[in-house]
Structures are given as structure tokens and as C-alpha cells.
Amino acid sequence: MSVLVSRLAEWIADQRWYATKGRQPRIRVIGALEGAVPAGHPHAEGATVVSYLLIDEAHEKPVLYQVPVVHRDAPLEGGETFLIGEVDGRHLYDGPHDPAYAASLLHQITHALESSGEGATASGHALLDPGVRVDSRVLRGEQSNTSIIYDVEGGPVPHVIAKVFRVLHHGENPDVTTQAALTSGGSRRVPTSFGSLTATWPDPGRESGTATGHLAFVQEFLPGLEDAWRVALRAAEAGEDFSEQAFELGRTVAEVHQVLAETLDTVEAGPDEIAGALESMRRRVRIASAEAPAVAPFGERILALYDRTAHVEWPRLQRIHGDLHLGQALYSPERGWVLLDFEGEPLRPMPERSRPDVTLRDVAGMLRSFDYVAGSLAHSEPPVDASAWASTARRSFVDGYIAASGTDVRAQRALLDAFEIDKAVYEAVYEARNRPDWVSIPTSAVERLVARSAPPVTA
Ligand SMILES: Nc1ncnc2c1ncn2[C@@H]1O[C@H](COP(=O)(O)OP(=O)(O)O)[C@@H](O)[C@H]1O
Ligand SMILES: O=P(O)(O)O[C@H]1O[C@H](CO)[C@@H](O[C@H]2O[C@H](CO)[C@@H](O)[C@H](O)[C@H]2O)[C@H](O)[C@H]1O
Question: Is the ipTM reported for this complex over the cut 0.90?
Fold first, then answer.
């Protein structure tokens, strides 16, 4: 195992999804799940499929990775670009690129099969039969996970996508459970869910001694569609009216909220829930003030605004998207807007992301995104002033949301403003860490929103 482990350690250090960039991985195997390749598969001969669960202790906070590998007796034709190395005379390939792993993953989920090895077990959970794999390829451009697109035959759709989570967490992954609930509730506003794979692995830090989480999930793939961010940017740049599309997007978000309220638990926003939500918002202000200094001068006024919202009425809490922006909506000419990626904000701790929350957060997320369209065009060369375009789009989006939900979110202005500020504060941290050139987009929004809704604090 040790030669294998050192080869895997060298390899993961270079992967985009390796979280502790710049460090030397210190890994241990805590699971080696042996997958079954469907009988008669053309690439099965001499191939063993193993998904390694690797704990990396390079950082004081250990990270658990899923690393599916295909061990082959002979080199795979065309496999040079995803070869991990040679160990014990066998050729090791990065699983998602190898047809044997791709077939075994879909087979395990579709047939609800179990697998096990080295202290871990995995189970497939089938919701709908997608048919059989004809071909597959890895989706390009992803940062943190690896997705495999399959062409399938014999099922209700021609293509499905399996999202393979690279970093694993105990607990449900909201991307899987929320979209599965929407499919089971009959919603066509998300790609249809087909099933998922979960695993249980040793975790001495937990009372039960084990942890359980999602490894992968399969949903319909809608090829060739543009996301709303690109559609909106183009319209704004050309000064084209976007009211109708924004109105429909508002309707879509309201419909998704409605199905989620019907299919998953909702809870009353009591004093404890409100206090918990506000505490997490205050924490974000403290982090943002340190990482994006332009937020700091507004900190006190923002905190005072949050204190006031504790006394207004909060709607019932329910499951929401959690990180809604224009990049998460695809436009299908047949189907209208379809929402993606219900994983919640990447900077938020995983257990918080599955909690019932306020639907206004999603409304606020989309409002921020229209402002981002104007913000990014203001940064372009030559700059374009799309502020009037953004105001019209924001208004139409809210009109569409109200029309479909029957809830006048404008009457909840204080709360909506607080969530919009909270989102801009989150974005300031996100941009400071990932795209410093864009940090002024959210920080100038903080300034504007504070001027509008949070009057100066008087002594
Ligand atoms: N079911 C799908 N149908 C079509 N495209 C998809 C689908 N799922 C993901 N994509 C494409 O992949 C991109 C990344 O997917 P996403 O779920 O947002 O992953 P990540 O969280 O890694 O950003 C999306 O912006 C979209 O372009
Ligand atoms: O899509 P992700 O889940 O990775 O979301 C993160 O990245 C987004 C950037 O792609 C970020 O969104 C911010 O930038 C968008 C433009 O690129 C803009 O439309 C959004 O309104 C803005 O929040 C998102 O916040 C972050 O969680």
C-alpha cells in the first residue's frame, strides 16, 4: 500500500480540487471501495475499480478526499493524459476519465449496489432508471468536484451527469437532497434526479465512531444551454430589455420554493432560530471587515440593522437554494429557466447549509447578481453603465416572484435589505479571496445598501 499511497499523495497535490494548496499531502487510506464493472463491458478486462477514501493531515484541519482509481494490467489506449502512475506493475488511472469507473459508478447507483473495503462501505440509491451508459466524458472547467457526462440509452433522457464529490463531509449534501426532493415533488425547474451514492467510513472523532456522507449523485444533463449570467451580461451590454426573462426567473424561484416547502420540513422562525441566523450574519461582518477593509467603516451600522431585524416578523423557515445567482440558472427554450447547484455557499460550513432558512435569502442573492452584471460591465474596457438595466431587471424579478408566490416580499423590505447586505458582505470575502479586482463590486453595494437602509448609529 505504501508505494501506492506515496504515488497518490504526489498526484493529489497537483489536482485543482486539492484544498491545501502549496502543502505536501500527508495521507492515510481509510476506505478502499471496490466497484463492480457491469458484465461484458468492453473496458472491464484486466481492470479493478477502487475508490480510495484518503484522509490528508497536511493541515491542522484534516480533509477527507474521494479518489476513484482504475488499476489496469495493461495501458489503456488514449489514457496517457489521466495516468496517475505505475504501481506494482499495474497502470493507475484517474477514475472519472476511465470508462470502467464511469460504468461502475452508474451501475452501482442504478442497481442500488453495495461496495466495501478497508473499513468503509458504500451504497447506491436509485430514484429513476437512467438506462445504460453508451459513452462518457469528464466536464471541463470545474474547480472543486469532478463531473462525468454520460450518453445513455433506454432511459427518459439522452444524457445524465454524475457529480463526484472530491472532498467528503459527514451529513447530507444539500445539492443531492434538495434536488431529489424537487424531482420527487414533480418540479421541472431542476434537472431530474436519478440517484446517489453514499458511504460510511471510520471517524474516531464522532461518538458513533463512523461518519456517513454523499460520494456522488446523478441527474439529467441539459447540454448546450447558456447560463443566465452570460445571457444577462450580453443583454445588459447591448442595452436590451431583460424584464420578461427576469420576471420568469422570479416565477421560477418562487415555484422552487413552493415545492421545497411542500416536500421538505419547514420550521417556525422562533427566537432561537432568529438569534442563530443573526449571529452567523454578524460573524460574516467581522470576517469581511478584516479581509475586505472597505466593509469595516459600515460594520457598526450593519450590526445595528441586524439587531432591528430581530424585532420584525420572519416568515416560516424552509429549504432554499442557498447560493442563488445568475450563474446557477440555465435557459432552456422548451422548459424555461432551470436552477442548478443547490450546494449552498462554499464559504459556509457544510452542516449549516442543510438547515431550513429564509426564502428571502435566495431573492436577495438574485438581486445581488443583477447588480453584479452592472458592476462587471462598469469594470469592462470601455466601461458600460448598466445601472438602469440592473434596476429594471431587479424590479421585474421581484414582480415575477410576487406573482408566483403570492407573497409581497416588498412588504418585508427590512428583512430583504438585511439579507442583501449579508450577501454583499459574503461576496466581499469571496472576492477578496478569489478575485481581488472585483472586490469593489460588493463593497460599493454594501455602502449603497447601508446608506439606504441602515441610518447612522446615534449615541
Ligand atoms: N445538470 C446539468 N445540466 C447542464 N449543465 C450542467 C448541469 N450540471 C452542471 N452543469 C454545468 O456545469 C457547471 C458547474 O456545475 P455546478 O453544479 O455549478 O458545479 P460547481 O459547484 O463545481 O460550480 C454549471 O455552471 C453548468 O454549466
Ligand atoms: O457558483 P459557486 O457556488 O461557486 O458560487 C461562488 O462563486 C460565484 C462566482 O462565480 C459567486 O457569485 C458572485 O459572482 C457572480 C458573477 O461571477 C455574481 O453573479 C453573483 O451575484 C456573485 O455573488 C458566489 O457568490 C460564490 O458563492
Answer: yes
Alpha carbon of 400 to ligand 1 centroid (Å): 25
What are 254's three cell numbers? 418562487
Q: What does the pLDDT look like over 168-184, one tens digit per residue?
A: 999 999 999 999 999 99
Nine cell digits for residue 274: 432568529
Q: List the domains of the chain with CATH numbers.
A: 2-111+122-220 (no CATH), 228-453 (3.90.1200.10)
How many CA atoms, within 13 angstroms, populate the side-chain half-sphere of residue 415? 21
118 lines ligand 1 (CB under 6 A): no
Distance from residue 190's CA to the centre of ligand 1 (Å): 11
Q: What is the pLDDT of residue 459?
A: 59
Which three cell numbers mark 403?
Answer: 406573482
In the beta sheet, which residues pair with residue 199? 122, 213
Q: What is the mean pLDDT of the chain?
A: 95
Specify the pLDDT at position 1.
Answer: 62
Q: Which helix (H) or strand (E) holds 133?
A: strand 132-138
Contact 144 CB / ligand 1 (< 6 Å): yes
pLDDT at 349 over 90: no
Question: Which residue from 334, 133, 122, 308 is spatially nearest to 223, judged by alpha carbons?
Answer: 334
Residues 6+ apart with CB under 8 A from 380: 237
